[in-house]
From TrEMBL:
Residues 20-121 form the Hikeshi-like N-terminal domain. Transmembrane segments: none annotated. GO terms for molecular function: nuclear import signal receptor activity; sequence-specific double-stranded DNA binding. Belongs to the OPI10 family. The lineage of its organism: Eukaryota, Viridiplantae, Streptophyta, Embryophyta, Tracheophyta. It comes from the Eukaryota. This is Uncharacterized protein. PANTHER family: HIKESHI FAMILY MEMBER (PTHR12925), PROTEIN HIKESHI (PTHR12925:SF0). One of its GO terms (cellular component) is nucleus. GO terms for biological process: heat acclimation; protein import into nucleus.
Amino acid sequence: MFGVLFPNRSYPMDISSFAQIDTFHWILDMNTFVGEAYDQIREMCIFLLNGLSLPPDKALAVYIQSPGSAFEYCGAIYTGCPSAVLALQWPEPGGQMQLSSADSPPLSAKIGVSVEDLASLPALNVGHQRRIEQLAMKVGENLFNFMQSFCSVDGNRLVVPMDILDRWFKKFQEKAKRDPEYLKSFML
């Protein structure tokens, strides 16, 4: 039905790499894949193997879980969008991690895949939206810091030169042209 690939980390894996919980749910235990370094896996490509394996009103939703935390939704694919690269922003590990006894297996990070109604899902790629939000925040912070260096105080108001946005934008563009890695630094 589906396959996954961890860019720069794995070969394509099919559904047999996942433990099937029931007809509509699968789990990949990250301990068997990368051990405790699950948080180093930052993105995942998921794809349908053929267009007939999923009804048009259904989607494959992807969830991630850090040890001891709840599952968090991170995106989905469906017949109209048969593949996606999803950002994996792992939740903070939960407090249950220390409660495992010698008899029980250690809690591990997991990736869950579930067949769900397409209409009931939120945005199809949550990680992508979070990255865009982070980028916007960092660009805004860069602008604020630039403006702050030219500010003066007039009573309870900050005064900036009228051309400050033009000057900031030109400087921003010049840095981006000179250094291709500059824009990538905003994404970290």
